[in-house]
């Protein structure tokens, strides 16, 4: 029995040991906490924090001395077996677990000014993610503050509290304003954390109550409607194959097999005219309420597609980048380098570095260019040539006057030529005035619509013979009735103006038919 129990314990220890990932250059923070739990499981964490004596007492038995030595050895073996092969060289010169831990900590957490600045940037960059639990967000902020404290830079409660309430969503703004009015002695992290968690629980409870009320309303609405429509009795008695197992809604017949279950019957309501989802009507749509609260905005999106084989000269790039592995003459794989992107402070790993050669066309002939230390990243949408590195090698860029015209925000060509002659811009080549530049964007921007010529006379002989109609909209703000457009109809003979507010552009034809019938009845003419 003892052998079976020991075997099961060894199997459980192996499974527990395999649950954590090995240490790499990018996961020190998570690996450190996982390894702490693993060492605590084996009773070895006491050596790291030095709460256990290094040497046994003189009165200790041989078994106690052996157990202490085995746990000290296990402390080192657990650390050594859970790091990658690239990092094992850091601790190969020692067999002490405490020394190995200190070496790794000094390597990944150096107490330097540069690291403190990096941790400060990470701390103030910790933002609340949409839909994130408030408790998790508070934990991330406190973890960033703890790393700064371990690096020798302890933050006051003022900065930690400010970061806790800085990026909270709109529903927390009342609580944030209340916290700002606190006295200085009350502005503490513990109190702010408790206040935010209480507010998050209150909002969660309010959300649940609203959902219950909405479900109750929808279920009552469905039950009332099912009683008034034909086929409700048959459906209520569970007759899925009966002739009356259908309901009529807005002129359409639909199956009502789900009337028996309240939750399933909610699915038969809809679709909503705002979000096109089932389960609710337009009057109860949450997206409609959010759209009404949001201010009117104008959004523009420009999308430009590039071929992945195109090379773009980037004056801000510090190195050359290529996304095609087949273009390299030689390629050396690397794993410890990342490239920083120009959007949202994101980074992307670089997979290799090497040399490539390609041909360029200049003045009708082709020339070969060899680039060294080119970084390889297959996820790039286009290849990049570093302008600073090319200029350091003595290369220069030749562009036409049309390109300079576009780079200087489509400035007048006369101004561009004068700027070149007066040497007002450093690096601008000598340009000559050889006629006007045919710039299509400039022509489109300066074009204007020609107005209609006034006739000055009535062209019709009786009312309703000739109508002038114009549709205006959509307006940035809806009317109280929810209208975004208005249709104006002017009778050419009588000059009578009639204006109809409408909701959608598709309602123009029906509005005109209604106007025509009313005008014909009024004039008794067709």
Automatic annotation (TrEMBL):
It comes from the Eukaryota. Keywords: ATP-binding, DNA integration, DNA recombination, DNA-directed DNA polymerase, Endonuclease, Hydrolase, Magnesium, Metal-binding, Nuclease, Nucleotide-binding, Nucleotidyltransferase, Protease, RNA-directed DNA polymerase, Transferase, Viral release from host cell, Virion maturation, Zinc, Zinc-finger. One of its GO terms (molecular function) is ATP binding. The keyword Zinc-finger applies. The keyword Nucleotide-binding applies. Residues 459-526 form the Integrase catalytic domain. GO terms for biological process: DNA integration; DNA recombination; proteolysis. It holds the Pfam family Pol_BBD. Residues 272-287 form the CCHC-type domain. PANTHER family: TRANSPOSASE, PUTATIVE-RELATED, TRANSPOSON TY4-P GAG-POL POLYPROTEIN. The aspartyl protease (PR) mediates the proteolytic cleavages of the Gag and Gag-Pol polyproteins after assembly of the VLP. This is Retrovirus-related Pol polyprotein from transposon TNT 1-94. It comes from Trichonephila clavipes.
